[in-house]
Structure formats: C-alpha cells, structure tokens
Amino acid sequence: MSNGAVAGGAAGAAVIAQAIKASGAIVKVEPLDFIALLERAENPLLVYCERRFFSTSYQYLMGYKGLVFYTKSRTPLDLPRNIEVVTAKKIWIPA
C-alpha cells in the first residue's frame, strides 16, 4: 500500500470521526417506541425521508431530551397531529 493510500484512508477516517462528533448521540429505536417518544415530547420536530432503492422505506429523526432518536420502517408511521414535519431528501446515519 502506498503512502498516498494510507494518508487517504486516514483522512477518510478523520472525516467520519468528525461527522460522528457533529451529529452527537443517535439512538436507534423500534417504530412503536419512536411513536411513544413523539407523543411525550412538547412541540416535537420530526425529520422524515422516504427512500426508494429496491423497496420503499421510511426514515424518521427527532430530538428528545438532548438525544437524537432514529427509526426506520417499511410502512409510513401513524404520526400524532401535534408535530412539525420537515421532509428531507436524504437521512444519513453514521455507522
């Protein structure tokens, strides 16, 4: 492996580490648990994305008590009415 490849790999790892730091803690929960959190939150803001790759999936993000919660579902969630929804083109969660 050349020094350039090693440096490129290190730079890529640094970018990923910075993205994780910027995003903070992301907690993955089941869809029903996500709905329960939405119902508890005051003035919740939800970020939603519909992905179509081989099949359609629905991704959701929300902040609650300083953490970011994430869920993914094969069907749209039945959302409470008191929420503000932002539709995103893409939601990327660091691995």
Could you name the key traits of this structure?
alpha/beta, Signal recognition particle alu RNA binding heterodimer, srp9/1, 95 residues, five-stranded mixed sheet, 5 strands
List the helices and strands and how they pair.
Elements: H1 3-23, E1 26-28, H2 31-40, E2 45-52, E3 56-64, E4 67-73, E5 84-87
Parallel strand pairs: 1-4, 2-5
Antiparallel strand pairs: 2-3, 3-4
Rg over alpha carbons? 17 Å
**Low-confidence runs:** 1-7
CATH architecture title = 2-Layer Sandwich
Number of strands: 5
Strand order of the largest sheet: 1-4-3-2-5
Mean pLDDT: 82
Helix-strand string: HEHEEEE
Number of helices: 2
Number of domains: 1
**How would you characterize the largest beta sheet?**
5 strands, mixed
Q: The CATH topology is what?
A: Signal recognition particle alu RNA binding heterodimer, srp9/1
Provide the CATH top-level class. Alpha Beta
Class inferred from helices and paired strands: alpha/beta
The percent of residues in helical segments reads: 25-40%
Quick summary:
The chain has 95 residues and is an alpha/beta fold. The protein is 33% helix and 33% strand. It has a 5-stranded mixed β-sheet, covered by helices on one side.
Descriptive notes:
By secondary structure, the protein is an alpha/beta fold. It has a single domain (25-95), classed as 2-Layer Sandwich (Signal recognition particle alu RNA binding heterodimer, srp9/1), CATH 3.30.720. 33% of the residues lie in helices and 33% in strands. It is built from 2 helices and 5 strands, in the order αβαββββ. The protein has helices at residues 3-23, 31-40; strands at residues 26-28, 45-52, 56-64, 67-73, 84-87. It has a 5-stranded mixed sheet, covered by helices on one side. The longest helix is centred in the first third of the chain and has 21 residues, at 3-23. The two termini are 25 Å apart.
